[in-house]
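COMPLEX REQUEST
Ligand: TLP
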Amino acid sequence: MRVVDLRSDTVTLPTKEMLEAIRSAELGDDVFREDPTVNRLEEMAAQKMGKESALLVTSGTQGNLVSILSHTGRGDDVILEADSHTYNFETGGLSAIGGLMVKPIRGRMGVLDPNDVEKAISPKDIHHPETTLVCIENTHNLAGGTVVSPNQIEAVWKVAEKHGLAVHMDGARIFNAAIALNIDVRELTRHVDSVMFCLSKGLSCPVGSLVAGSREFVEKARKWRKMLGGGMRQAGIIAAPGIIALEKMIDRLREDHRNARLLAEELAKTEGISINLETVQTNIVMFDVRNLGVTSAEFVQRLGEHGVKSLPRNEKTIRMVTHRGIEREDIEYAIGSIDKVVNLIQRR
Ligand code: TLP
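STATUS: Structure written out below.
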């Protein structure tokens, strides 16, 4: 049976060119900072993000953690969006490893209201933890791949600056945000102190993420990375496909956005399925199967039997993600399978 995998853009496999680049990468020991391929990728990443320096890390989770640890001290408060990936899906590392307190606040479609951020800052008083960091997620995964605009980032940054807080951006899919807004990614990073982005999602690399910020920040992050076991040696085999990703894989994200839009618009026409098209801004599509009288887990399982893989996000919501390797005809096939499953459920 033909299988269309819409669970995540993390399932993308490296291109032939990436595999060739891995094979022929010039290597050295990166803990001695002697891997020329890593050094080149880090320079490229810093330049792309408009920051002084950048660091290759093993994953988005590690990148967010080393960034957060570099901005804070034990017992500090960190302000995060309540549905953020860091708060929900990164195993509580910031509390377990950083000894940090977390203050989740609810955004609108993933976007923090600067007034809510300001209210969440602990008073400077002997009784309270010190609030030292606010995190922004862009695009926002659980909100449906929604984009946080430069103005919205600047508004949060102004509050942070007024109160002496740092701003970190979980930009796992920051290039999706830049492509959706048709702007240079630096417009999204101008008002953050640090940013993490992933190579291993829509950019199709097998592994790796980068963090970028000031030289001082990156040196702290490098030490935390070492402590977390992320000091890699001939890491050029990871960096080599990353270079290709930054050179060649960003513009094609547009196709993923087009396919997500097509999928979402067809889902909106399907009886029993609810979808908020306003949230479909990049490559993520979230929809609700509540009115069909099934759980998302049941729907996902049935859809799997009809050749389409997806992920339940909560009891009623399902997530589909478009990525390289998913063409328009795969979306049409997915729609056909969804229609079949909906009909089967409605007939029982
Ligand atoms: N997200 C993954 C899974 O965790 C669900 C996905 O398929 O979407 N920040 C954001 C916004 C993310 O979406 C992810 C991964 C991460 C951080 C963590 O990256 P990794 O998986 O490399 O640790």
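REMARKS: The first helix runs from residue 16 to 24. The radius of gyration is 21 Å.
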